[in-house]
Specification:
- The chain is built from 31 helices and 27 strands.
- The chain is mainly α and 741 residues long.
- Helix content is 45%, strand content 11%.
């Protein structure tokens, strides 16, 4: 077996490699017996891999039994000897060379009981002898000078507790003392000595306890209802939790221990407590350990080699195949598969877990952790704990980061750049499209999760077809290579959710799209728990066009113009204020003026670059569509000023960003939501103002000119022209006569 092959097997099949190495050295035991022993000793993946790597490097340890070696090697040798192996050597004492039946270790070496004993000056007789035990003060004693205490430990500790809680039941105290160390009477005696010396350990100062059993004793007394006994809090984070980890002379919680062991992961740069170390001893964080392809295993559900999410008695399950408990979601109120939130401890369904919405507290688009479906609350607003939420050093967004390192999206971009970049550090043009496609996958993941949430194979097939070849295809066609806005993402999700809800209801009724009839569809439409009724009509009409359903009717609502009242005078009054009010920020004034006269939606304004501003022959033009628009003097000055001094809120000086309105994330424009918030703070009602502007422009311009000038779709321009009752039917004929004359 080659060294490379052994290294590969030590990761992919450590148990098999250890079994083969033992079988090569031992002929008395069969392979099944050896595998049983190895499986019992090797334990989890990390321990079995370390054991396999050591034995692959030094297989002679099986026959000579010599250290230095990991503890697991000694345990394996002892277990094989007990199973009847004769060629396998027992562990050998590093001091005298005697074979061992049990292990006492110092560092990486093991010794017999005689060689490992500590020698020191006895605190009683002063002779230099082997330390047999320690007295109540922790000083060493030899075997000739034991620290005798003939008092009954239960009586002594009951007397101590009576000074704190008079009338405490002696039997309750004695039982709690026994359960604190049931098989170690001498250890219980030490507990009594420590509490007798410092009774304050029972009233809140147990973080100073010298013995872990004192903490268990306090918990047992507290559970028994003994008055005056106070459970201690962690001296660092001040939480009343289990504190049995020693750190700097105190006992702290597991979370504070993890923070004290923080190191920088050599792969992702996150600063966390290492979960393991690589071949060079460098730290790896838990996330890199879990996501390492070498740690993937074959899922018993889908039979694919994937990351392990849960281990069952039958074998590992990947995240897609892991069943979720059916719970009543505390946010949306639906009974659906989900789990409990780590922030609130309340049940949360899978849909709310993946949901992104505007937080009603801070207004940002984030993952939802609490609140209701109508009033969602994000994680930082649910639990504003500085220990949980950190700003990403790359994009600046506060996320629940496992460390002060970059967030997941920035980490993905960094790793993609490392994989695809050439020697000069830049991504070749041929690979740029691949990089962009891989870096923007959130919507595809969400679509895949929604599709797989349906239980029937036929339904998932229909949903995949609807999502991939209709919703996503239409979204990419409409975006025309630009960034997809949050509103567009929301529309796709709602349409797909509506399809899932309808198919789930049909399945519960024992129906499919093919067997569903109009009466069944109307029964669903009139039910009390129906959701996304309008979006479901889109799915039904698509199914009819694809011949998946038949004999169904779900009429669409035709748009006949704006439904809100429009005040053109108020629109122009706001425009005049933006033109002349110097107290407002120039970038906000420019953004508002792009909406008021030119009907530009915040999504379009946020994607403008400096190249959209053209200055030729003293005229300033703005290219919103195929034909540039001449800007009047005051608006032109604001546009040129924004090009010259543009900066984002995250920097203090001018930026080199190509975007006309830079965002907080380097190299990105301002988000659509942030742009909308700026306009709303100016008193502009976005939908009503844009409708008013489009309505007015549609009465003055033909649909073709409107579309080419403002950059909107021709079908949208035609609808607005019809809504405005603009009579441009003779416009084309008039243009034709001009060209012929």
């Amino acid at each position: 077996m080659t060294a490379t092959g052994s290294a590969d097997r030590s990761v992919a099949d450590p148990i098999g490699l250890i079994t083969d190495l033992v079988a090569d050295a031992e002929s008395e035991l069969g392979s099944e017996t050896i595998r049983t022993v190895v499986t019992a000793v090797a334990g989890g993946r990390a321990k079995s891999r370390n054991l396999a790597k050591f034995l692959a490097t030094r297989p002679a340890a099986l026959t000579d039994g010599r250290s230095p070696a990991p503890r697991a090697v000694g345990d394996l040798l002892i277990a094989l000897r007990k199973a009847g192996a004769s060629a396998i050597s027992p562990p050998v004492c590093a001091g005298c060379g005697k074979g061992l039946r049990s292990l006492q270790r110092q560092g990486q070496d093991w010794y017999c009981w005689v060689c490992i004993k500590e020698t020191s000056e006895c605190a009683a007789c002063g002779n230099i002898r082997r330390v047999t035990f320690r007295d109540r003060k922790g000083l060493p004693r030899c075997s000739m000078c034991p620290d005798h205490d003939d008092r009954d430990p239960a009586t002594v500790i009951h007397t101590v507790i009576n000074t704190i809680a008079p009338g405490a039941d002696r039997d309750v105290v004695a039982e709690a003392l026994r359960r604190s160390a049931p098989h170690r009477p001498h250890y219980r005696q030490r507990v009594v000595w420590a509490l007798e010396e410092n009774p304050r350990l029972l009233t809140g100062e147990a973080h100073l306890s010298p013995h872990r059993a004192i903490l268990k004793f306090i918990d047992l007394l507290h559970e028994a209802g003994v008055a005056g006994i106070v459970r201690p809090s962690c001296p660092r984070c001040h939480r009343v939790v289990r504190i049995d980890k020693p750190l700097d002379g105190q006992r702290v919680c597991r979370n504070c221990i993890a923070k004290s062991r923080v190191e920088e992961c050599v792969r992702c740069g996150a600063r966390r407590e290492p979960a393991t170390r690589d071949e060079q001893g460098r730290p790896l964080c838990p996330n890199c350990l879990v996501t390492d392809p070498a740690n993937a295993e074959v899922c018993i559900g889908c039979k694919e080699r994937r990351r392990v999410h849960t281990r069952t008695a039958e074998g590992p399950l990947c995240p897609n195949c892991c069943p979720l408990s059916v719970l009543v979601c505390s946010i949306c109120g639906l009974t659906a598969p989900g789990n409990h939130s780590k922030l609130t401890g309340l049940p949360r369904c899978r849909g709310c877990f993946q949901r992104q919405a505007h937080c009603t507290t801070c207004g940002r688009v984030r993952g939802i952790h609490s609140g209701t479906a109508d009033a969602p609350v994000c994680g930082p607003c649910t639990k504003p704990d500085a220990e949980l939420w950190h700003p990403c050093p790359t994009c600046g967004q506060a996320e629940r980061l496992r460390s002060p390192g970059p967030c997941r999206r920035c980490t993905l971009k960094q790793r993609l750049h490392e994989l695809l970049a050439d020697d000069s550090g830049s991504i070749p043009p041929k690979l740029q499209a691949l990089n962009d496609a891989l870096a923007v996958v959130r919507l595809e993941r969400h679509v895949n999760d929604l599709v797989t949430s349906h239980t029937t194979a036929e339904g998932r097939k229909i949903l995949h077809r609807y999502a991939t070849w209709h919703l996503l295809r239409r979204l990419r066609r409409r975006s025309r290579g630009n960034d997809i806005t949050h509103t567009q993402l929301t529309v796709v999700r709602q349409h797909l959710r509506a399809a899932v809800h309808l198919l789930n209801w049909l399945e519960a009724q024992g129906l499919t799209l093919a067997t569903c009839r109009q009466a069944d569809l109307e029964r669903w439409m009139t039910s009390d728990d129906v959701r996304h009724r309008r979006e479901a009509g889109h799915f039904v009409r698509w199914a009819l066009a694809q011949k998946i359903a038949r004999d169904l009717s779900f009429p669409a609502v035709r748009w006949n113009g704006p439904s809100q009242a429009m005040d053109d005078e108020a629109r122009w009054a706001t425009a005049r204020r933006l033109l002349h009010d110097d107290t407002l920020k120039s970038e906000n004034r420019l953004a508002g003026l792009l909406l008021l006269p030119y009907a530009q939606w915040p999504a379009a304004i946020s994607r403008l670059t400096v190249d959209h501003i053209e200055e030729t022959d003293g005229a300033v033009r703005l290219r919103l569509g195929a034909v540039p628009v001449d800007l009047p003097g005051p608006v032109a000055e604001l546009a040129l000023q924004q090009v010259a001094v543009r900066r984002s809120h995250a920097v203090l000086a001018r930026t080199d960003s190509p975007w006309l309105f830079p965002g907080g994330q380097p190299g990105r424009p301002i988000s659509v939501w942030a742009m909308g918030e700026r306009l709303r703070k100016l008193g502009i009602r976005l939908a009503e103002t844009r409708s008013t502007a489009l309505f007015q422009l549609a009465t003055e311009l033909p649909a073709a000119v409107l579309a080419r000038t403002l950059g909107i779709d021709i079908t949208v321009a035609v609808k607005w022209q019809r809504a405005a009752a603009g009579d441009w039917g003779a416009y084309a004929a008039e243009v034709s006569r001009r060209n012929n004359s």
